[in-house]
């Protein structure tokens, strides 16, 4: 029964996490369409890539005991492909300065993963110590990944707009954090469940900001449109009144000339 419950949570967690990794697709469709990265940040996607690399490695038999953490391999393997695609698209459409920033962050990230993989493979010779090393680094990276939206949330609060914090990403983040926290508790693995202790409250906070500022923008949007429409109608009426006055003047002049 316990094993069935764990597998059920893992499967649903996989679906939620894949949804989380796939959520930025709409954002990058916009980037491709506009040929610009606009105000979007590359940091969440680069940190997400490192997170997926580390936990894919953590789930493999090299680090874990046999395939005890196979669900981590499947979901993070998909995550690697998606996050890498986002980073490459961002790099392609970024400005020259933006490309430099992407390279300066991505290269050290890949170096960290390579060093971690090499040390865990050749310097450590048993699964518990390998899990401790890779899991500890993965824990820090996961906390950083969940904390990266704080920059975007600060922007949301400042601008009172959720334009650059997509709702699908926030919803997926909330569900993924909830499910993987549950899964980590069930398998008693702090490295799997630990990051979600922070990820879950941050996911809730993102949803709260969406409720607050999305509703406000919906209410204010039509009012602004009505004002613009009202101003346009006012200008049109003034033009019509001026034209009517000109016509009346011409008629008066013709009438006078006819009388004389």
Automatic annotation (TrEMBL):
Spans through the membrane: 6-28, 40-60, 72-93, 105-125, 131-152, 164-184, 190-209
Keywords: Membrane, Repeat, Sugar transport, Transmembrane, Transmembrane helix, Transport
GO cellular component: endomembrane system; plasma membrane
Membrane-topology annotation of the record: Multi-pass membrane protein
Domain of life: Eukaryota
GO molecular function, one term: sugar transmembrane transporter activity
Keyword Repeat: yes
A single GO BP: protein homooligomerization
Ranges in a coiled coil: none
InterPro entries: SWEET, SWEET_rpt
Function: Mediates both low-affinity uptake and efflux of sugar across the membrane.
Family: Belongs to the SWEET sugar transporter family.
Protein name, per record: Bidirectional sugar transporter SWEET
Organism: Crotalaria pallida
Species lineage: Eukaryota, Viridiplantae, Streptophyta, Embryophyta, Tracheophyta
